[in-house]
């Protein structure tokens, strides 16, 4: 099989294990070529640190995209995450127009916030831009906070429980046109996982695993990267969600056991071997 190639459009945060510093090693371990198009360079991610640097790379993005287009590079998937400015939403839309072929898988992680709060660098205009951009996706991977923003309802009013989460993924599917994987779904104490709707089979379900009662930054990025890798390796959606849920659980369990700080992300490097086939 030809090595699948992904264009990964996220920020690169030098310290803290999220976005590209998670997507690149995970996709490589899964046998996928990851071509990064960084949206911004930050010294650390924006959660749990203060005083981080932020170099906006918006101007560089269309130049890099134009060079890739001149080389006739093709991608089996385009995978986007944390975006750095409102103008970038339009640039990413242009990128889709240039590089999206009939079989290209478009995976959008609508990174905007967590725990009911919006990330400090995201403006209401950017959230609206993300909602619009997400309409083009084949697959979106919101957490509960992002699902509320996409639905335009207050976080506190999100439905919960099995039927609530399944309702959310169906509502977000745009009448079955896109697949939705909702992370952070917990229907019973001590369990957590993801609810999904698959636009190919119309299947929907919740896949849960044991919950380690500890939170870390970057778990959403680990989840979406494994999901992307699994779908590109040919897994069906239910199996891909299962792989992502299991790997995040493994990472969180190890990081909690090592008593590492939540701001440093999950200690995934020693576990990458689990992703190698
Ligand atoms: O994990 C999502 C993410 C990505 N990129 C940056 C972030 C965060 C979450 O805090 O700050 C820069």
- Please identify, by name, the CATH architecture: 3-Layer(aba) Sandwich
* Structural domain count: 1
Coarse morphology:
globular
SS content category: alpha/beta
Strand content: 15-25%
* CATH homologous superfamily classification: Ribokinase
The strand count comes to: 13
Bound molecules: 3-hydroxy-5-(hydroxymethyl)-2-methylisonicotinaldehyde
List the secondary-structure elements in sequence, H or E.
EEHEEEHEHEEEHEHHEEEHH
Characterize the main sheet: 8 strands, mixed
Name the poorly predicted regions.
none
Protein architecture, described:
The mean pLDDT is 97. The chain has 277 residues and is of the alpha/beta class. The protein has an 8-stranded mixed beta sheet with strand order 3-1-6-7-10-11-12-13, sandwiched between helices. Helix 1 (20-29) packs parallel to helix 7, helix 2 runs parallel beside helix 3 and helix 3 (86-99) packs parallel to helix 4. The chain has one domain (5-275): UDP-N-acetylmuramoyl-L-alanine:D-glutamate ligase. Helices cover 36% and strands 20% of the residues. It is globular, with a radius of gyration of 17 Å. The chain has helices spanning 20-29, 60-70, 86-99, 124-134, 144-151, 161-171, 219-232, 237-257, and strands at 5-9, 12-15, 33-36, 40-44, 54-56, 77-80, 105-108, 113-114, 117-118, 139-140, 179-185, 191-197, 204-210. It binds 3-hydroxy-5-(hydroxymethyl)-2-methylisonicotinaldehyde.
